[in-house]
Write a sequence for this structure.
């Protein structure tokens, strides 16, 4: 029983970390694109 709970918590934790990494990557990508557009507009 405890082993199953540990595995479930591990999988859930991994999913949360992966989700946060994906969100961070998307936000960073959008920020970079916006920054590039701003620089291009200034020039």
């Amino acid at each position: 029983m405890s082993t199953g709970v540990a595995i479930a918590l591990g999988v859930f934790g991994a999913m949360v970390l992966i989700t946060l990494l994906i969100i961070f990557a998307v936000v960073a990508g959008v920020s970079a694109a916006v920054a590039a557009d701003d620089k291009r507009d200034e020039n």
Summary: Residues 1-35 form one domain.
